[in-house]
Design brief:
The protein is α+β, with helices and mostly antiparallel strands. The protein contains 9 helices and 16 strands.
C-alpha cells in the first residue's frame, strides 16, 4: 500500500486544514468528470481513500501506529461521500466525530412593570427569576461521585455509526448518530442523582437590574450570561428584561412628552389666574393669562419624560378646558345678561373658524376626555 501522506502530497505532521486543502486540489485534477484520462479513476479512488483516513483523527492515529485503517471496512476502495462534501463545501456532508455534552444555553425573557416615575427617572429593581443553573452537586458534569463518562461501546467514542453501501462510484460510507450514546461518543453510567445526568437543575434566584431613565413599554434590557445554563453545564444564555409601563392616574405619555388635562372656571379664564398642578417633579404653578380659551395649552419645558439615549427631557403639556356653569341662580343670570349687554353680544351670535391648529388641538384634547371618561 502506497504511503497515504505521499498520495496526498503532505508531510506527516500536516494539519487537518493542509490535508483538506491538498485533497481539494488533487480531487479537482483527477476527478473522472473533469479528466478524460481512463487511468484517473483509480488515482481518484486512491487520493479519496487517503483523505478518508488522514481526515479522521482515530484512523490517522491507527495508520501512524502501523495498523490497517481499512480493516473494519473491507478494502481500500471505501470512502465517505460526507468526507468529499466536507472537503469541498466546508462540512456540507454533515458533522464528524462526537458532539460535545456541554452546549450553550438558551436566552430567557421576563417582564417587569414600572410606574411612570420609574420609567422617567430610572430605578433599581430586584427580580425573582427561575432558570436552569449549573448543578452544584456534580459541577455540571452529570456524573455522580466524581465519576466520568465512559466511552460508548457501540460507536467506540466516535458518536456515529458508519455504514457501507455500494454505488456507481464504488463503496460509499454513510454515517448516522449513535443511538446508544446520542451522538456524544460516551455514556454516563453513573448519573448524578440531583440533575439526572443533565448537568443543570431549575432554581429560583434573585438578581438586581438597573432600569435606565426614559424606558417605555416594549424596551428590553439585556443581561449577558443571566439566562439558561446549557446542557452539560454549558455557558448560560442571556436574560432579557422587557419593560411594561403602568398607566398613570392623570398623566398621559406621548413619546417623550407628558400631557395633563385640567378644568378652570369661566371667570378664571376670562380674568386670568395661577393654578397648581401635580407633576413627576412635584407641584408646579401654571399661569393662566386673561382671555384664555378652552382647549388652549400651556407648555412646561423640561418636565416631561427623560430621553433614553440622547439625554434631556421632553415637555409637560397642560391642556386647559374652560368650564361653563350648568346651574345658575336668577341673580347670576341677570349679571351675565348685563355683562353681554355691556359687550354688545347677542345670544345667537356665532363665529365660524377655519379648520386649522385650533381644531387639531381640540381633537387631541377630545382624546383626553375620551381617555378619562372610559
Amino acid at each position: 500500500m502506497a504511503d497515504l501522506y505521499e498520495t496526498l502530497g503532505v508531510n506527516r505532521d500536516a494539519s487537518s486544514d493542509e490535508i483538506k486543502k491538498s485533497y481539494r486540489k488533487l480531487a479537482r485534477e483527477f476527478h473522472p468528470d473533469v479528466n478524460p484520462d481512463p487511468h484517473v479513476k483509480d488515482k481518484f479512488k486512491e487520493i479519496t481513500a487517503a483523505y478518508e483516513v488522514l481526515s479522521d483523527p482515530a484512523k490517522r492515529q491507527k495508520y501512524d501506529l502501523g495498523g490497517d485503517p481499512f480493516s473494519q471496512f473491507g478494502g481500500s476502495q471505501n470512502f465517505g461521500f460526507g468526507d468529499i462534501m466536507d472537503a469541498f463545501f466546508g462540512g456540507g456532508g454533515g458533522s464528524r466525530g462526537p458532539r460535545p455534552r456541554a452546549r450553550a444555553g438558551q436566552d430567557a425573557l421576563i417582564s417587569v412593570e414600572v410606574d411612570l416615575s420609574e420609567a422617567c427617572f430610572g430605578c433599581d429593581q430586584e427580580l425573582n427569576v427561575e432558570t436552569a443553573v449549573r448543578c452544584e452537586k456534580c459541577n455540571g458534569s452529570g456524573c455522580a461521585d466524581s465519576s466520568k463518562p465512559q466511552t460508548c461501546g457501540i460507536c467506540k467514542g466516535r458518536g456515529e455509526i458508519q455504514q457501507v453501501t455500494r454505488s456507481f462510484i464504488g463503496n460509499v460510507m454513510t454515517s448516522r448518530p449513535c443511538n446508544n450514546c446520542g451522538g456524544y461518543g460516551s455514556v454516563i453510567a453513573n448519573p448524578c442523582g440531583e440533575c439526572a445526568g443533565d448537568g443543570r437543575v431549575r432554581s429560583r434566584r434573585t438578581i438586581n437590574v438597573k432600569i435606565p431613565a426614559g424606558v417605555e413599554t416594549g424596551n428590553r434590557i439585556q443581561l449577558s450570561g443571566q439566562g439558561e445554563v446549557g446542557p452539560g453545564g454549558g455557558p448560560a444564555g442571556d436574560l432579557y428584561v422587557e419593560i411594561v409601563e403602568r398607566p398613570h392616574e392623570f398623566l398621559i405619555r406621548e413619546g417623550n412628552n407628558l400631557h395633563v388635562s385640567v378644568s378652570i372656571p369661566m371667570i378664571s379664564a376670562a380674568l386670568g389666574t395661577t393654578i397648581t398642578i401635580d407633576s413627576l417633579d412635584g407641584a408646579q404653578k401654571v399661569e393662566i393669562k386673561a382671555g384664555f380659551q378652552s382647549a388652549d395649552t400651556v407648555i412646561l419645558k423640561g418636565l416631561g419624560m427623560s430621553r433614553l439615549r440622547s439625554g434631556g427631557r421632553g415637555d409637560l403639556i397642560v391642556h386647559v378646558e374652560v368650564a361653563t356653569p350648568q346651574k345658575m341662580s336668577k341673580d347670576e343670570q341677570e349679571l351675565l345678561h348685563k355683562f353681554a349687554d355691556l359687550r354688545g353680544e347677542k345670544r345667537d351670535h356665532v363665529i365660524i373658524h377655519n379648520r386649522g391648529k385650533s381644531d387639531q388641538d381640540s381633537g387631541f384634547f377630545s382624546r383626553f376626555r375620551d381617555a378619562f371618561n372610559r
